[in-house]
Amino acid sequence: MQELAPGASLQRNDLRLALFRTSNRFFYLLYVLKGLLRQKWNIRGIDLAHSDKISCQCLPASLPRNGNPRVNSRIFVEADGELLGTLPAEISVVPDALTLLIP
Questions:
Q1: 50 backbone dihedrals φ, ψ, rounded to 5°
Q2: Which of 3, 6, 60, 81 would be 35's cystine partner, CB 3.0–4.6 Å?
Q3: Which of 70, 76, 102, 100 has its CA nearest to residue 89?
Q4: CB–CB of 7/50 below 8 Å?
Q5: Beta bridge pairs of residue 18
Q6: 55 in Cβ contact with 64 (< 8 Å)
Q7: What are the boundaries of each domain within the chain?
């Protein structure tokens, strides 16, 4: 994972976020390839950030045009490759909640 999220570490008390604000599949592929090849990259619509908490929710612009405020339950949430559920979601770090023994 270090290749896909440079700066991520189990020894940090925060999350390394990969923010994808593009629907261009070529940019996703380029991000993965450059990460695996450990190349520097600057891809429009893809950014990295550190945070101790993130809140994800459906934007009003993405609600149905018929005015029904029902949230789209088909927007899935994933963390570290694991499916967590659907929006809305809040993910946070609890410092020192787990002790790792590293040889």
A1: -105, 145
A2: 3
A3: 76
A4: yes
A5: 48
A6: no
A7: 1-51, 53-93
Maximum separation of any 2 CA atoms in the chain, in Å: 58
How far are the Cα atoms of 8, 29, 31, 81 from residue 34, in angstroms, in the given order? Answer: 16, 9, 5, 19
Exposure of 13 by Cβ count < 10 A (0-12 exposed, 13-18 middle, 19+ buried)?
exposed
Helix (H) or strand (E) holding 55: strand 53-56
C-alpha Rg value of the chain to the nearest Å:
16
For residue 47, the cross-strand partners are: 19
Which pair of structure tokens corresponds to residue 96? 């020192």
Q: What is the pLDDT along the chain (103 residues), one digit of tens a residue?
A: 557 788 888 788 898 888 888 888 999 898 888 888 888 778 888 898 999 999 988 876 655 666 565 544 578 888 778 898 888 999 898 887 878 788 8
Show the tokens assigned to 19: 């923010």
Phi-psi region of 81 (alpha: psi -120 to 50; beta: other; left: phi over 0): left
